[in-house]
Amino acid sequence: xALKLYVDEDCPGPVARALRDAGHDVVSQxxxxxxxxxxxxxxxxxxxxxxxxxxxxxxxxxTVLDQLPAVGVVIIRLRGPGDWTARAPRVVEALxxxxxxxxxxxxxxxxxxxxxxxxxxxxQT
Length: 125
Fold this sequence. Notes:
Blueprint: E1 4-7, H1 13-21, E2 25-28, H2 29-32, H3 38-47, E3 51-54, H4 58-65, E4 73-76, H5 84-98, E5 105-109, E6 114-118
Parallel strand pairs: 1-2, 1-3, 3-4, 4-5
Antiparallel strand pairs: 5-6
């Protein structure tokens, strides 16, 4: 299933390209407003009706603890050697597995698993 995604500035280019190539509708923060604060990035992604894809753990805090509105957040935690061209397929695979479950949740992708935590109900957009 193709998702509407909003890719944060910290998300490497190979990941954004791989997500587009996999059929997802991708908007990059780099094309919208470079250098925006995290709460602005979250607001822009929510207003656009898109799941945010990022490497920044701070978005988990903003959505779960601070309860800022979000469509969904996917946090990429792929550590280790290698460039992002080699890591991008894992992100594509994890988003294919997540599908619509990425909406209304904070999901974390690592090499071995994808964890999903529902957003607080009243904060979903």
